[in-house]
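To fix ideas, we reproduce below one chain and its tokenised fold.
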Amino acid sequence: MGSLYQRGEIWWVKYYEKGHPRRESTGTTKETEARRFLKEREGRVATGQPILQRADRISYDEVAEDLRQHYQTTGSRNMEEAEYRLKHLDPFFTGQRIAAIGPDRITLYVVHRRGEGASNATINREMSTLSKMLRLAHENNKLLRLPVIRKLKERAPRQGFFEREEYEAVRRHLQPDHQVAVAIAHTYGWRMQSEVLTLERRQIDFEVGTIRLDPGTTKNDEGRVVYLTPELKSLLAAQLERVRALEREMGSILPYLFPHLRGPHKGKRIQDFKRAWRAACVKAGCLGMLRHDFRRTAVRNMVNVGVPERVAMKVMGHKTRNVFDRYHIVTPSDLQEVARKLTGTFSGTMDQVNLDDHCVSL
């Protein structure tokens, strides 16, 4: 039989393994938690499972590195995205023992991140990364008990999208190469920074009439191929001519579809144009619109013209129906269109009924 005793405010346990006494700190000041710790230790001894050596001393730093190695080895998550989450977790939890990371510490982290202006959705994504880290530590016998991590309530998904006239109004206030980029995003719903602006000239095939994203370059790591519309063919041809003109001016070959055409970064790939985008939205009277709204816009446009949903999912890069449904926005004009179609159907039916009655009376 094991026993409990205190050293200061911390509870310690004594139990026997193969007839030899073992003493270990529980790392807690609460007797009920210490008893659970003792029962867990006795259960491991009884079933022959390995005893976690000094698990109470394993730090956040060690398991964070384990998580990084796990992602790098398995490729189960994009490292850039993972590091984006970890850069907020690391400063807060570095140096702490993982055995001490419980609901109280997690609550303090939430308060801290809210103080930095982070939304509940952002904090939830970071908590998911922390949860994965702790589950991995548990699997590696570095953590005895997994803490309860409850998600915060998130706001409803953004419903922003572009009507055609809004899209055209904003695009008119952009420079020509930016106009081509937003046309691709508007047509296919591709992500601006990671999928559109990273395109290279070799990914455009005018002979076949396609544009492709290479495997490993998208969020889900799957490649995509789409066929160009006549409008996009014309826009891309003009863009390629601008790039060729820049090549002749610089005397070097440029692989990018969207290089800087002027300024101090001339010839280098455009990383983003957020400032130009915001200015165009202001001039067009479309305040608060995001380039990411093109993803919802593209889904709605494709579905409304009769593109099968599974094909639209392939074009967008959606692997699950739940994600696709989140981007498929139903607008008041869509609902009004239902009424118009039903009115036409019913009026046609009534006309036929009246005609039949007339024929019968004759």
Remarks:
- Residues 3-51 form one domain.
- The chain has a mean pLDDT of 84.
- The beta strands are 3-7, 10-17, 20-25, 204-205, 210-213, 224-227.
